[in-house]
Amino acid sequence: MSVRTNADVRFRAAFFSITLFLSAGLMFVVQPMIGKMMLPMVGGTPSGWLVAMAFFQMALLAGYGFAHFLSRFSPQKHVLAVCAVLAFGLVLLPLKFKMESNAVTPGVMEVLLALVVSVSLPFFALSAVSSSLQRLFSAASSSSTSDPYFLFAASNLGSFCGLLLYPLLIERTIGLRDQTSFWLIGYVILIVLCCLCLALAARFLKTSGAQSKAKDAAASISWRERGQWVFLAFIPSSLMLGITSYITVEEGSLPLFWVIPLALYLLTFVIAFARHQIVGRRVIERVQPIMLVFVIFDFLAKPFAYGMNAEHLVTPLTLFFFTALLCHMVLASKRPPARRLTEYYLWVALGGALGGSFNVFLAPFLFPLPIEFMLVALIGSLVHSGFAKKPSRAITALLWIAMILALCATFLWSQFGPNNLFNRESISADVMPIAFAGAAFIFYFLLSLGTTPARPAWWRPKIGWSILAGGGFALGVAIGFAIYGRNQNVTVVSCITLLVILLSLVAVSLWPKALICFAPLLGLLAFCLQTMPELKDVQRNFFGIWRVYDVPLANFDARALMHGSTMHGLEQTAPEIEVIPRSYYDPNGPLGDIFRAVGPKDVAAIGVGSGAIACYQKPGQKFTMYEIDPDIVKIASQEFYYFGQCGTPDIVIGDARRSLAAAEGAVYDLIVVDAFSSDMIPIHLLTREAFQIYFERLRPDGVLALHISSRYYDLRNPVSNVIQTLGLKGKYIFADPPPIDKRRPELGSSPMSLNSNWIVIARTQAALERFRRAAKWIDLPEPEGKAWTDDFSDAFSAIEFSKIE
């Protein structure tokens, strides 16, 4: 009988786990699916996904609140009600995203309202499944097997798998219409499985319910505990959206980059709530502070205000993972008895929703620059168990020395340090950052051994010897760096200065209380000294963060427009103002070839940027520029001279694709697509349906020009696929910076001119014959794969992973 009972328990646990696995998978597959549906409606901005994440967290909170309300009823009635709501959710299926708004450009409230109308009910129902089935399982189990929290790990594992499957398999093989159909099938299967779980548990509820009730009746929860749950859930949620913002601004707003932070977030839940401990809390508490040090160090070497390169995203992503894991491990250790399960999940969901809301709704108004990630990461150090420990006098002296050294070194570095020490094109091409990290870890190891009360028998030195050994090694490394970089304007002083900052931070990291108090001061000093003199304007809105910098170059000064770490415009400001368009738009480069070959009278340009394209306007020509972000028009008008001293184009505010479709009667000789969200053209401007709109607005011999310069994407194949399906013809050019004077190439190129890649497309090959006179324009390669449409796109295949380092 015992064997049969144990078999029944294992079968029931497996069946409940499978059901929760499917439920969580559906709940998290739908998130990137809806995000991809709404990208065309929000202009491809990364903020669209962040708003969606905040909505899903609030819907999760509502679902957990509903489950907690149902906990006052019997487990059978509870799960039966959830099954009914799941069935009612079928009225909104298959899923469709529609956003009806009279606003010229979409905003946060329009996106939220559209999400509520499109997906709120089925997602709300799915959110209630996890805690409801866990309660049912606990009530139907014996006292020895009634802990249901391992099911929470199974649920998050399903979420983790669903998230990874979406960009790696689902998005690359199935269109959105088929995705919603398969999702509907999975949703119906889940309803059936939930009903079977209810039937499976029904015969065990009478015998185990009384025991569970008697056991947990006396359990009570204080408001202090509830506040701790909220805080421990708030930190990882806010960090997740903060690092997602960095990644999507740098790499592009794509499902692949949406799910990486979210998958890591869920993985920390899986590890923290596993039945058997995978990694100890003490190990995490050793690693987390040192990762915080490296993020602060990255901030000093290249502040977040400038935008982080792909290589600089590794340390913040690692810090996020370890901080979230530490918070969730503490959260798991504070979980209440199973009878309080639904309330526990409710408060956890509240913390998650508050974290997401802080990043999406509050931070953009509080901070002109994206400092919320650093701020919350520092606050997350409060979770560290060593925060309450009081250091000895010797350690206190060491802390003061480290703090003073770090502040002095930071001042010297901000004033005199070379700006390009850690800004190479590739981290693998420069051994310095890797060697610095190695020196810091060795110093950390020696110092931790010297300050740990329970030291190994073979290690009995005092703190002074630890500092001497670690510092001596690090000094040798710094001198080696200086010798290595003697031909790269790297001096012994600059290397030692930067290393002092790093090692001082490493020393402080052993005592979290000192680190959390000291790091903001260090960061503020670096920010004020290094960033503010060059930063002329910041505009943060729904479409991102635009920054205008004055950049000193060799013989003159320039002004740059940045989005993330991607430059979108450059203009000479001293010793005299030069209104010749440079950067990607040099008259001797590909764009000059296009205007000379086409000789257009009517021109449409998608994307304003710094306004450089307006300098191609000549008397008698009509220019119309389409721009979704009103703040960009203000920046181009107030911070750059192109609009004032070149052409006077008409400006249309709104999504270019929808505005062109609505512009009945508008006909152009040339359409220039120069719209970017950081380093990527929004995908909805590259689909077959978008190209059909462009050519409806072009004259029979008109030309479409696509600016496809990118550090991470090669868009030739996707564009070639689309033009083949539409029977169009195309050529492309990957051009180096052009010479200042084509008749005198020995003069070289302007230091303000950049590499630029362009594609020109026309209805016939005859319309492209005029580009034969321009060198280096060649036919597009034969396409591979499927053409991008509004229903299907595979940006994963366009990523050049060799360039993401």
Describe the fold and architecture.
This protein is an alpha/beta fold. Helices cover 56% and strands 10% of the residues. The chain contains 23 helices and 12 strands. The protein has an 8-stranded mixed β-sheet, sandwiched between helices. A 4-stranded antiparallel β-sheet has the order 1-2-3-4, covered by helices on one side. Helix 3 runs antiparallel to helix 6. The protein is globular, with a radius of gyration of 29 Å. The protein starts with a helix and ends in a 26-residue tail after the last strand.
Features:
805 residues, alpha/beta, 23 helices, 10% strand
Please sum up the structure shown.
This protein is of the alpha/beta class and 805 residues long. The chain has helices at 2-38, 46-70, 75-88, 108-139, 149-173, 176-216, 223-251, 255-272, 281-301, 314-333, 341-366, 372-380, 393-416, 432-451, 463-484, 492-509, 512-530, 590-598, 630-639, 642-645, 656-662, 688-696, 716-725, and strands spanning 535-541, 544-552, 557-563, 566-574, 602-606, 622-627, 650-653, 668-673, 698-707, 729-735, 756-762, 778-779. It is built from 23 helices and twelve strands.
How would you summarize the topology of this molecule?
Layout (H helix, E strand, L loop, with lengths): L1 H37 L7 H25 L4 H14 L19 H32 L9 H25 L2 H41 L6 H29 L3 H18 L8 H21 L12 H20 L7 H26 L5 H9 L12 H24 L15 H20 L11 H22 L7 H18 L2 H19 L4 E7 L2 E9 L4 E7 L2 E9 L15 H9 L3 E5 L15 E6 L2 H10 L2 H4 L4 E4 L2 H7 L5 E6 L14 H9 L1 E10 L8 H10 L3 E7 L20 E7 L15 E2 L26
Parallel strand pairs: 5-6, 5-8, 6-7, 8-9
Antiparallel strand pairs: 1-2, 2-3, 3-4, 9-11, 10-11, 10-12
Helix pairs in contact: 1-2, 1-4, 1-5, 1-6, 2-4, 2-7, 2-11, 3-4, 3-6, 4-6, 4-11, 5-8, 7-8, 7-10, 7-11, 7-12, 8-10, 9-10, 9-16, 9-17, 13-16, 13-17, 14-15, 14-16, 15-16
